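Tokens in:
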């Protein structure tokens, strides 16, 4: 089957996974930073994809919405919507207007300048994903592309990209999942620190006051004034 090559052994498959993982730290950091920038400006994060990438969009949406919270009482949270989840809207659009419109038209209802679209496409050439990216860019949204294969058209148009360069759809999708869980893990710490009641960092060094230092200074001041 196209996009699913055969491997001689488990060792060969996992060795290839390791080679690809070694390429991803810097793209992963840019991916996390783009998501964090959206959080800081209170933007909505939209996610779109087809098939396995639709499942990934739904999964990562709940990871951002809930998985980044260390305490469900937290007030500052990610605003996030998977465009792959509204079955009624998707099927209405696909039936009446064509499948290529299903993400773009949802963004026309919901997207605003400054929001972020995470566009997931193993091939980088999914027409409905590309149309959503084009529309998002036209209204001033930021775009994050997540691709496999050679990156396709999406690699060239997204503002920030995570590209897994492998002609194996299953492996590309699996490594996309690794990136998504890495992002959730790192963003969880940042979201905790961004809460209004989060403890402020303790000062260190010469500016830090040692226990009892204030009392000692007060005592010396009183002695000099006698």
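Residues out:
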């Amino acid at each position: 089957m196209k996009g699913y090559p055969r491997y001689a052994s488990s060792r060969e498959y996992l060795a290839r996974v390791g080679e690809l993982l070694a390429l991803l730290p810097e793209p992963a950091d840019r991916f996390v930073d783009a998501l964090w920038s959206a959080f800081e400006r209170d933007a909505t994060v939209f996610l779109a994809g087809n098939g396995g990438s639709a499942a990934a969009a739904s999964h990562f949406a709940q990871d951002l919405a809930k998985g980044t919270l260390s305490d469900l009482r937290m007030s500052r949270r990610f605003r996030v919507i998977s465009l792959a989840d509204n079955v009624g809207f998707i099927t209405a659009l696909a039936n009446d207007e064509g499948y290529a419109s299903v993400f773009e038209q949802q963004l026309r209802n919901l997207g605003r300048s400054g929001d972020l679209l995470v566009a997931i496409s193993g091939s980088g050439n999914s027409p409905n994903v590309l149309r959503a990216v084009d529309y998002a860019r036209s209204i001033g949204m930021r775009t994050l592309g997540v691709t496999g294969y050679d990156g396709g058209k999406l690699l060239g148009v997204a503002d920030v990209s995570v590209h897994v360069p492998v002609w194996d759809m299953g492996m590309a999708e699996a490594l996309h999942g690794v990136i998504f869980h890495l992002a959730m893990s790192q963003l969880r710490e940042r979201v905790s620190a961004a809460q209004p009641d989060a403890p402020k960092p303790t000062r260190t060094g010469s500016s830090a006051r040692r226990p009892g230092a204030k009392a000692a200074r007060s005592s010396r001041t009183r002695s000099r004034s006698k």
